[in-house]
Specification:
Aspartate Aminotransferase, domain 2; four-stranded antiparallel β-sheet; binds pyridoxal-5'-phosphate; transferase; 2 domains; pyridoxal phosphate; about 400 residues; EC 2.6.1.39; PyrdxlP-dep_Trfase; Aspartate Aminotransferase, domain 1
């Protein structure tokens, strides 16, 4: 075994060519140094995890139902939790619900079930990077459709559906990661109708569903499709943004034939999601008053942090830097003047000891070089003020202008 690199290279499956280390990840490793301010990670705020409540509920479950909580359980998931999820989804019964180990696993299993090498998958531009990572090993061909402030452009979408007849389309209508966009009601309806017209199933990723700052939640694509007869939307959501991501409890809700295939795929992956964690999540969410208050705490904290970031952006950014003001979720999405490469900007920002995620990796078609994502969910007021001052300095320097503030 002289050269382990070449020994294994000749044995790895061809699909691993599409699983690569990201240069950005390498760069962001530098941000662990002391004094660094990073808005790169999309981590939910750890100060809002209901740690005490989780400790008490875990103890209760173990004392009262220890053997059940620690035993193997069914692939589909803990029945009371599946019932609770089904009760919140119009037209769904527990048989339509599969518990998964994070919605990330839902994306992987969906890819396994739907994508052959070369299958066309329609995605938003930009889209969630983790979904591209989950789908890539199944070797799809992406069809990217661009977006306006309301979400997918309908004319482009229809042309793409007609020309390509993709296997499915992957859509994030609510506080999209990375752009924070909220798709309006009319756009939602139109997309659901187009998908039905062209018989293209939708995979709806609703990880940020609960993180509205104000106002009433809009109906999900799943609900709108149900109103037209149902069967064309598979819905994905998670406890990662409302309770704690380390629990890895999420769910897929969909038509029975799809759930059946996902059950088989999950059996091969991990048999089932951790029984204790599923019981714990049910124990937490079944106390409706507490659960509502928990979500309210998160909404208020994120809205405050978002407002701090908005004022800092207004104060420190070059005037031709654009952004979407989030109405919920965890991210600001910035568009720099054409020609400013955000990977270069990241290198400049790192010299200032601040970091963000360049936008290009979120585009399956490789566009978006002048875009970037900032996360405010875990940041303090001081970090936001100082971090944006540093980013402003780096951006002004790249544009050859004098910084403000
Ligand atoms: C849009 C979206 N989908 C899915 C996930 C994965 O979430 P989890 O696997 O924690 O449920 C994330 C995490 O950031 C996300 O932003």
């Amino acid at each position: 075994m002289e050269n382990l690199e070449s020994y294994y290279q000749s044995r790895f499956a061809a699909r691993t060519r599409r699983i690569q280390a990201s240069t950005i990840r390498e760069i962001l490793k530098l941000t662990q140094e002391p004094g660094f301010i990073s808005f790169a990670g999309g981590l939910p705020a750890a100060d809002l995890f209901p740690t005490q409540r989780i400790a008490e509920a875990t103890q209760r479950i173990l004392l009262e139902h220890g053997p059940q909580a620690l035993q193997y359980s069914t692939t589909e998931g803990y029945p009371p939790l599946r019932e609770w999820i089904a009760s919140r989804m119009p037209g769904a019964s527990p048989e339509n619900v599969q518990i998964v180990s994070g919605s990330q696993q839902g994306l992987d299993l969906f890819g396994k079930v739907f994508i052959d090498p070369g299958s066309k998958v329609l995605v938003e531009a930009p889209t969630y990077l983790g979904a591209l990572s989950a789908f890539n090993p199944y070797e799809p061909r992406y069809i990217s459709v661009s977006m306006d402030e309301e979400g997918l452009r309908l004319d482009e979408l229809e042309a793409a559906l007609e020309a390509h007849r993709p296997r499915f389309m992957y859509v994030l209508p609510t506080f999209q990661n990375p752009s924070g966009r909220l798709m309006g009601l009319e756009r939602r309806k139109a997309i659901v109708e187009l998908a039905r017209k062209y018989q293209t199933p939708i995979l709806e990723d609703d990880a940020y569903a609960e993180l509205y700052f104000s106002g009433q939640p809009l109906p999900t694509l799943y609900a709108l499709d149900q109103a037209l007869g149902g069967g064309n939307v598979v819905y994905l959501s998670t406890t990662s943004k409302t309770l704690a991501p380390g629990l890895r409890v999420a769910w897929v809700v969909g038509p029975k034939p799809v759930i059946q295939k996902i059950v088989y795929a999950k059996q091969g992956a991990d048999l089932h999601s951790p029984t204790l964690n599923q019981m714990l999540v049910y124990e937490l969410v079944r106390d409706e008053g507490w659960y509502r208050a928990q979500i309210e705490r998160i909404r208020q904290a994120y809205q405050t942090r978002c407002n701090w970031m908005l004022s800092a952006l207004q104060k420190y950014m070059p005037e031709d830097m654009g952004w979407i003001v989030p109405q919920g979720g965890m991210f600001f999405w910035l568009t720099a003047p054409e020609g400013l490469d955000s990977l270069e900007l990241l290198k400049q920002a790192i010299e200032e000891k601040m970091a963000f995620v360049p936008g290009q990796p979120f585009f399956a078609d490789g566009s978006g070089k002048n875009t970037l994502r900032l996360s405010y969910s875990s940041a303090t007021r001081e970090q936001i003020e100082e971090g944006l001052r540093r980013l402003g300095r780096a951006a002004h320097r790249m544009l050859g202008r004098a910084p403000v503030g």
